[in-house]
Each structure stands twice: as structure tokens, then as C-alpha cells.
Amino acid sequence: MKIIFAGTPAFAAAALDALIQADHQIAAVLTQPDRPAGRGMKTATSAVKLLTQCHRLPVLQPQTLKTPEIQAQLSEFHADVMVVAAYGLILPQAVLSIPHLGCLNIHASLLPRWRGAAPIQRAILSGDRETGITIMQMDAGLDTGDMLLKKSLAIAADDTTLSLHDKLSSLGARSIVQVLELLPQGQLTAIKQDEKQACYAAKITKTEAEIDWRQSAAHIDRTVRAFNPSPGAYTQYRHLTLKIWQAAIATGKAGKTGEIVAVDRDGITVACGEGALRIVTIQKPGGKKLSISDFLTGNPLQPGELFTAVSDSMPAHD
Q: Which structural domain, as residue segments, surrounds residue 37?
């Protein structure tokens, strides 16, 4: 099948690689323009573009798909289908209508639950027990198109956004290959989404990653896992903003919210609004991620000390 592929991060690269391995003809690849990123603001190349370079595929990096020029260019490929995965640009109706089999989206949730930009993080934050992949026939709405295939995946108690992302990227890659095998044979039934079941996975903001120790230990554990690897759940200790990368729900500990109730080489136990949380991996500003054993070597913590909100340590303004 002749395909135009549109995607940017590693999640999309896994799908593109699977399509290449399945011997589909990749007529062109769309990906986001190279942009400065990271502390050094060096120009970063997307995971999808790196893969296209390995396979010498034609790559396009338009700022928008709304111009007649890019739409005419895409039409000239005479593609059967466009496959879209975490691309990052809106596809106008003129682009959606170009391939004769339409545009298919690989979405990392069981639609209509968690439409939008951050379905993996929102599923973990909400305590969902399962998520999955939906292959959807794209329309002009935001993840509102008819569903062609759904594959579910259990969310493990220790899953982070990183680990779940990797599982879903693999599942998404297998699923799109399956759909492209069945679609020309007419073996797929498009199912409309139930709008009553829909919810929106809003883009993640850094402020959401601040730990509120008044919340339950279970909620804070989900916060730590949902914001790993980015932006990282954080809290205030003395005058330091610490990032918490790994934690687990503890038992049998009581204290004021945010109070360190136990310290040993295996973890720091902190009282929460309900229950307690055991911190296992932590990071100081500008430092490396450390096990609690290594962290305590240069940063002795004592029971009775408090973790607080970063905002609590900021000076008041008139």
C-alpha cells in the first residue's frame, strides 16, 4: 500500500518502522520542523526524521498544512492512505480528503476516553486500570472519528508514563499494520464513538507536577508515575526543589501532611493526607537521579522535617 506517514516523536517512529518492515511503500513522511530544545537549545531532530534518514525516505517539514502549496504537493504522491501518529499539526479537511482511503490516526487510549494531547498521563493520574490503542478514521474533530480497531492493555501498578508509552508504541505499531492488512479487504467495520463516554486529555502543565501532600498516598504515587519522565513530580525541602522519580505506597505510618516519619537506606517515608508514601529515587537541582541510599550520603534527612509546596516558600507580594 502507498502511504504518506505523518508523525514526530518516538511513539510515531515505532509505527513508521513497522510499516517499513511490512514492505509498505512510504511515498513521503511528514514531521515537525527541527527546533531548538533542551538546556543548550541545540537544534533537535525528531525521532521520525532520524528514521527517514536511515531509510532514505523523502521527508517534508512544513510549518502548516493549510497552504495550497503543501496540499498540492501531498496530492501528487497519489497515496492510498495517510497514517498519522503524534504528528503535532492539525490536518485540514483538504488534506484529510487527499488519500482515497482517508487518514488513519494511531491514538494512545481507548477512545472515546482520553481524546487529546496527553492520554497516557491522564490515564495514570486518574487511576485507570487499562488503556490501549485505537486506530481511528480521522475527521475534522479532535480524535472524534470512527474507530476501526481497538486493542486494550492493562496498566500495571508500577507503570510510569515512560514504561506505558513504550508498551503502547509497540502495540500501536502492530495495530496499524493489522489495520492496513484488513482495510483493503473490507474486513473492518467503522464504529462511531459514544459522545457520552468522551473525556479530554488536556496538555500537561509543569505546575500539575507539584506534589500536594494533603492528597492521599495513592494519588501522589500516581502523580509521581504520571510525570515520569517529564516534567517530573517535585516538592520543596528546606530551600531545595526536589524531583521525586520513584515511590511506593507505605503502610503503618502517621504524621502531619508532608512530614518525614521514617528514614532508612531503602527509602524516605512521608505522611500524606491519607496514608504514607515511601520515596525511593530522588534528584536535587542540577544533580543526578539518586537512590535514597546515595542521596542520604550527602543530604542527611531527619524524621520530623517537612516536605512542602514550592509556592509556600516563595515571598508574598502586595
A: 2-201
